[in-house]
Write a structure and sequence with these properties.
Layout (H helix, E strand, L loop, with lengths): L2 H23 L13 E11 L6 E7 L5 E7 L3 H6 L12 E8 L6 E10 L2 E3 L3 H8 L1
Parallel strand pairs: 3-5
Antiparallel strand pairs: 1-2, 1-4, 2-3, 4-5, 5-6
Length: about 140
């Protein structure tokens, strides 16, 4: 291949690779959450956002001093939540929940539902193994 041919391949290859990698970089991973510790948060749902790429729930959690703090709880996709039985019918504002997952490394009160959620005493999870780890 001549000099001009290599240059043409390079000109086409770089934008092509960038275009293919865009969808991958547009979504974050769960690396920001501490997977070495299971966190359990119990409180009342104050906000629910059912939209992709993740459904989000805000939970008012009582603190030891009589106040509450709001935890941002990040779920999976709306479809993944639905497959686990988590939907706008099961998780509503005012619902009492217990969430099992992993806290964000940042000290803010933010966690990911990776192990499951208990709503009014019923446990929801896509993963049978998660039930075991949440029960510990």
């Amino acid at each position: 291949m001549g000099r001009l041919g290599r240059r043409a391949v390079g000109i086409l290859l770089v934008p092509g690779c960038a275009a293919l990698s865009a969808p991958v970089s547009a979504h974050h991973s769960m690396v920001a959450f501490d997977h070495t510790k299971l966190t359990t948060v119990e409180g009342t749902v104050t906000t629910v956002k059912w939209r992709n790429p993740h459904f989000m729930i805000e939970v008012a959690v009582p603190t030891g001093d009589g106040k509450t703090e709001t935890w941002d709880v990040e779920g999976g996709s709306v479809a993944a939540g639905g497959a686990a039985g988590i939907s706008p019918k099961t998780v509503k504002v005012g619902t009492k929940v217990k969430v099992f997952g992993h806290r964000h490394y940042d000290p803010k009160v933010h966690m990911a539902i990776l192990n499951g959620i208990e709503v009014d005493g019923k446990y929801y999870s896509r993963n049978a193994e998660a039930r075991t780890s949440a029960a510990r």
